[in-house]
Each structure stands twice: as structure tokens, then as C-alpha cells.
Amino acid sequence: MMDDIDEARDWLGNEIDCAGCTHQALADAGGCRLKHACVHDRYARRIDRFFNWNPELANSYVAHPHFEVRAIAAKHASIFLLPPLLDDPEETVRWNAARRLPKRLVLRLRNDVHREVRIRIASLLDDSELMPMMADPDYYVRLVVARRVTPSLLARMIDDEEAEVRRVVARRIPHDGLLRMAGDRDDGVRLEIAQRLTPDQLSRLRYDPDWRVRYEVASRITVGEIAELAFDSDGFVQDMARSRATGRQERLGEFPA
């Protein structure tokens, strides 16, 4: 498949001339092709195709002045040449080097200035390596940590400032930590908690300000504690409570729209 862009220019905008290229012999043998697979082209897809065809040449390009070349070469070059790239000024280069290196070498990127690098690094690490990132200034980094870390460690994140992070914590934290989050300021977090609490624990949320939480309570709380909910201010909560109180026991389905 040919590239859609019908031009061949290098990263400085100059037109590429195969006649003066050091890979002329490679081109003659079909190892590269103008506008399709060329290490000098400014388009990443063509650079990537060049190294896919010629991975053995990547070692020669890890210090190339164009960051796209360095980044793509890092996918193929010897790992012994990659540690210096962890200090590359371009985040794409740092990440492509990091994902191939041993964890002990990339841990310092947990404090990388670029959030995308920290997000990607968090996707590689586990537990004790992730714990320092629980306080990362970027909420999405913390979200990745909350999704990956062992649930027993999530108690450290129950007061995270971002509700989306706390919702993930609420879904994954061990059961004995749920009640600690029952008073969360976000309705969505409390709903997650309500859906996981046992029937005999739900009484704590009978007076929750969000009707969805009270509906969940009414649908599962022990029948002996349901009487007050039969007079709830929300009609759906009332109906659920009354249906259970009268012994019909059916769920009314998902939350009504």
C-alpha cells in the first residue's frame, strides 16, 4: 500500500535525493523505497517501515537529530544502547526506550516531566514500584495506578481529590474498606459503594441525598429495615421499598431514566 502523501522530504523540509544517500545499495536491493520506506523521510510511517524492513540498521540511528527517527530506532536497537535515551528531550523517545529496558533502569521516569511518559510507566510497574505514583499530580496517572495496584493497597487512595479515581478505588478496594468510603462527597462513588455493600451494611446509606443510592439500598437492604424507605421522597425508591415490604420481592430493573 502506497502512502497518500506524494512527496519525499526530510525532517528539515528538503527534498530527498536517493542519489546521494548512504543506503543507495540497499535501495537497489529493494531494502528501502522512496515515498514508502525511507529513514530520511519526515513521515513516521515511512521511517517505521524502513526499520521494520531493516531492524539491523537501528543501532546507527539512536542519536539521529530527528526525534521520530530516534524514537522508532529505539524499538529495534540493541538494549545496550537505550539507557542514554531515557534522558532524551523528546518524551516519545524516552518512552520507547523505557518499555524495552529493565524496570530498575526506568523507575526514575516515574517523575518524568511529561504526563504521557508517567502514564505509560505506570502501566509497566507493580505494587511497591507504583506506590510513589499514588500521589502523582496528574489525575490520570493516579487512575492508572488505582487500576493496577493490588486492591489491598488501595486504602491509601480513598481520599484522592479526583472522584473518577475514587470510583475505581470503590470498585476494587477489599470489602472491609468499603464503609470508610460510604460518606464520600461524590454521588457516583457512594453508588459504587452501595452496590458492593452487603444487605446488612446498607442501612448507613438509607438517607443518602442521591436517589440512585437510596434505590440501590431499597432493592437490597434487609426487609426488616426497609419501612422508612417506603415513604421516601422519590417515587422509584418508594415503589421498590413497598414492593419488597409487601413480599413481592421483584427488582424493578436498572435505574429508571
SS content category: mainly alpha
- Tell me the number of helical segments per DSSP (H or I, 4 or more residues long): 11
Share of helical residues: 25-40%
Q: What overall form do the CA principal axes indicate?
A: elongated
Q: Topology as H/E string?
A: HHHHHHHHHHH
Mean pLDDT across residues: 92
From the alpha-carbon coordinates, what is the Rg to the nearest angstrom?
Answer: 28 Å
Low-confidence stretches: 249-255
Task: Kindly estimate the percentage of residues that lie in beta strands according to DSSP.
Answer: under 5%
Sheet of most strands: none
State the distance separating the first and last CA atoms: 48 Å
Number of strands: 0
Protein model, in words:
- This protein is mainly α.
- 36% of the residues lie in helices and 0% in strands.
- It contains eleven helices and no strands.
- Helix 7 packs parallel to helix 8 (163-172) and helix 9 runs parallel beside helix 10 (211-220).
- The longest helix is centred in the C-terminal third of the chain and has 11 residues, at 235-245.
- The radius of gyration is 28 Å and the shape is elongated.
- It starts with 23 loop residues before the first helix and ends in a 12-residue tail after the last helix.
- Residues 249-255 have low confidence and may be disordered.
